[in-house]
Amino acid sequence: MSTASAAPPASGRATAPRPHRVLAVLGLAQLMVVLDTTIVNIALPSAQVDLGFSDGSRPWIITAYALAFAALLLLGGRLCDLFGRKPAFLIGAAGFAIASALGGIAPSFAVLVTARALQGVFAALLAPAILSLLNTTFTEPGERARAFGVFGAIGASGTVLGLLVGGSLTQFLDWRWTMFINVAFAAVVTLAGARLLTHTTDKGGSRLDLPGAALISAGLFALVHGFSNAESHSWASPSTWAPLAAGTVLITVFVRWQRRVADPLLPLGVLRDRDRAAAFSALLITGAGLFGVLLFLTYYLQINRGFSPVTTKLAFLPMIVAMMAVAQVSTTRLLPVLGAKKVLPAAFVVSGAGLVWLTGTTLTSGYWLDIMPPLVVIGAGLGAIVPPAMSLATQNVPAQDAGVASATVNVMQQVGGSIGTALLNTLAAGAATAHLAGRNPTDPAVQGQAALHSYTTAFAWAAALFFLGALVTAVLHRTRETPGDETEAPASAA
């Protein structure tokens, strides 16, 4: 039984529905955090016209959020463990609302970038609090499986929904509503969280590892910044390799420091478990490979097929529906019966096969027969990867480390997305250049084929990443574990 449902009834009312209300609050908060990774993307041209900033400045609206979020996640996770998940949740949600309101009324580019960075700061506190609350609230195997099925589906589909919501708000209202909508979300989750969540501190009395926090925050910042620069600079540019090198060194020093310090920011035992390492790897690879579907298929539908921004995002809905449907089945039925060693590799192969299917796309491909079916296949595979991996990555973690383990889940997804952005963009650009060699680059037909070749190349490499995920999870996962069989770690009331 979950700790939430075990709490004494208040005023004589039954407490059985309470975990489901908690799940609704946590799910809405997670949706808010995930939406903001992409919700402003389509709004950027409108914001640029309104505020008058340059094309070169435009990427900072996205990067400011990503850098602050990724850099501070582990610190945010440990703060959850030290000072309590409920305070972290409430402060994170309220701060996110204030930052979003600031972005909505931003009179200048500088204010908007500042607001986006502040959103990332508070998201880095909120996201680990959300997942650690889920992990410690839902401990009974069946209840946990259902909860992570819902939560994982939200996490996996939120990026696409962010694009759809952002496009709709920009088209029918104003770009500023991509900021203001978070105020409404945050108000609901803050008020509901204050009422439903219970304050606990599982690592009270421990000291915050400030040197470790500084090392990992700087290292993750440098790493994500380097991969972001690879989009607009060559890999040989100092703007790319210098931060990547610095990030690698800082993270290496951080790992060495964690072995020495009495109260480490990230206990290395969280990473040493083979099954947990496999789950973290699955999330990292999925973050990288999913980029190939979202970005390059968006380019194809809008540029080559003439879809509007909103229609393009609606085209991804079948993938989201498949993802959500399979998410419940994968966590409640497939994982308990077959185990992660069979489910995750098979799911990676399914999504990889869907991407291989997309490599056959032509300039005349129809949506209903040629695009939607592979999207459904990809979504089905993702629905059997993300929710189980999120559950397995946080399962059996001691309650005092739940926050930092949850933060590591988000770190893997953020770093994976950065790697996918840099790697697939580079490969796609190289493929387009190779296709144009020896041809007339001003010929529209040649340009169209070059673009198509870049997209299908990205799909092929994304498929390769998913097949790599199948291999990694098959090798790392042990055969013994299924969620219903393992001894549960002690968990505090959430």
Structural summary, described in words:
With 494 residues, the chain is mostly helical. It folds into two domains: 18-208 and 263-476, MFS general substrate transporter like domains (Growth Hormone, Chain: A, Up-down Bundle); 209-262, no CATH class. It is built from 18 helices and no strands. The chain has helices spanning 18-35, 44-51, 59-83, 85-104, 109-137, 141-172, 177-196, 210-232, 238-260, 269-272, 274-304, 309-314, 317-338, 340-358, 367-383, 386-394, 402-436, 444-476. It is globular, with a radius of gyration of 22 Å.
Give a short summary of the structure.
The chain is mainly alpha-helical.
CATH-level-2 architecture of the largest domain: Up-down Bundle
Radius of gyration: 22 Å
Helix residue percentage? over 70%
How many domains make up the coordinates?
A: 2
- CATH H-level homologous superfamily name of the largest domain: MFS general substrate transporter like domains
The main sheet comes to: none
Give the ordered list of helices and strands: HHHHHHHHHHHHHHHHHH
Give the N-to-C terminal Cα separation.
13 Å
Low-pLDDT parts are: 1-17, 481-494
Category from helices, strands and their pairing: mainly alpha
